[in-house]
Amino acid sequence: MSGILDASLNELIDGDDRTLAQLADKLAPLLVDRIVAPAAGDGWLRGADQIASYIGSPRSRVYALASAGRIPVQ
Fold it and tell me: What is the DSSP secondary-structure string of 14-44?
């Protein structure tokens, strides 16, 4: 099934912009719930859980990034 789906998607992507726009219009309502909402308040993510959810990684990865100085912490 994956091969058929990949071939179909490639055909759509390589097709005309109108067809791709129609596909985007149909998918948009389905994808709205999957978009991560920004944190309330000042726009900063607060806590390892929020950051992990935002970057799609486990909390342990957030702690590792913070320890390495790769992300700002307060």
Answer: HS-HHHHHHHHHHHHHHHGGGSPPPPSSSS-
Cα separation of 14 and 74, whole Å? 46
Crossing angle, helix 17-31 and helix 2-14, to 10 degrees?
A: 120
pLDDT in tens, the chain (74 residues): 578 878 877 777 777 778 778 878 888 887 776 665 655 566 778 889 989 998 999 999 999 999 988 888 87
For residue 61, count CB atoms less than 10 angstroms from its CB and return exposed for 0-12, middle for 13-18, buried for 19 or more.
middle
